[in-house]
Amino acid sequence: MTYPTPTSLLDVNLQPGKPPILRVEATSDAVRWAAEHRSALRAFVAEHGSLLVRGLALRDAAETEAVFRQLGSLMTEREAFAPRRRYAEGVYSASKWPPNEHMCVHHELSYRLEPPGLILFACLVASTAGGETPVADSPNVLNALPADLVERFERVGWLLIRNYNGDIGASVADAFGADDRRAVEGYCHANAIQFEWQPNGGLRTWQRRSAVVRHPRTGQRCWFNQIAFLNEWTDPELREYLVDVYGEDGLPFNTRFGNGDPIGADVIQVIDEVYEKNTARERWQSGDLFLVDNIRTAHGRESFDGPREVLVAMTDAVHLGDCSPTIEVTGG
């Protein structure tokens, strides 16, 4: 199925190893352009999973926010795994993550009951080297994973365990929008999150989710989770340090099979290898706009040198209950 491309746009460039790239004619009004072409852009992303728009020359946060608002219904982030700068309501910086570390491919907030359906990125300042936002097609990843591993995750789901320690990752206030215990507990109860307050005032949470879902619009089966990104074996050297500091039960993040069984380094390696074989990349240029279907397409971030300013908006909340989850959520 194809969708009409507005006559003011150049043809979409579809090349192996790269996301679809649409070069647009220079415009002095990116906001008006986004409003005029919203339907065509979203239709293309619905078919292909992502689209990098080059030529809009986005200049600042105010203009970017206005473009974002033309393209989707912006969400307030909850349950963030890392802190962000907030530019405006629903408009954030990319996650604060060490620039020398690769951020594994994942689906944003896949552990939420209402994750974003569409992610919008805008690059205001491109890094001097690296810093790409790689993307991977989720149905292809699912088909390439070992069938027995997929079957196990479909049967038991995956478990995310978090320890909010005030040092690494988002704080309780950043994640839940409040640090009042009653408000945090109310959120956890409402969102199927099991929790336990620690003697030192920290918070530990558990949430069990489906690892495979169906896209709410297309019905495609998608590998949808953050199993490999937030696991203790994502970075073995970092794990050794964190275990020394916090102990094995106090790691800021960890993932397990949904029945609580550990996920070994071998499983993480298999998932990462499949992601890499199905990943597309393109260097950012300042002014770029990138639309990513968050259910269909996983994304990550490469290490980089120099300054890098990428703005993010999470839009169009999807209810996981509408995605044919393979397990019943538990927690809270």
UniProtKB/TrEMBL annotation:
PANTHER family: GAMMA-BUTYROBETAINE HYDROXYLASE-RELATED, TAUD_TFDA-LIKE DOMAIN-CONTAINING PROTEIN. Pfam families: TauD (PF02668). Its cofactor is Fe(2+). The keyword Oxidoreductase applies. Gene3D superfamilies: Clavaminate synthase-like (3.60.130.10). GO terms for molecular function: 2-oxoglutarate-dependent dioxygenase activity. Residues 32-313 form the TauD/TfdA-like domain. This is TauD/TfdA family dioxygenase. GO terms for biological process: antibiotic biosynthetic process. Keywords: Antibiotic biosynthesis, Dioxygenase, Oxidoreductase. The keyword Oxidoreductase applies.
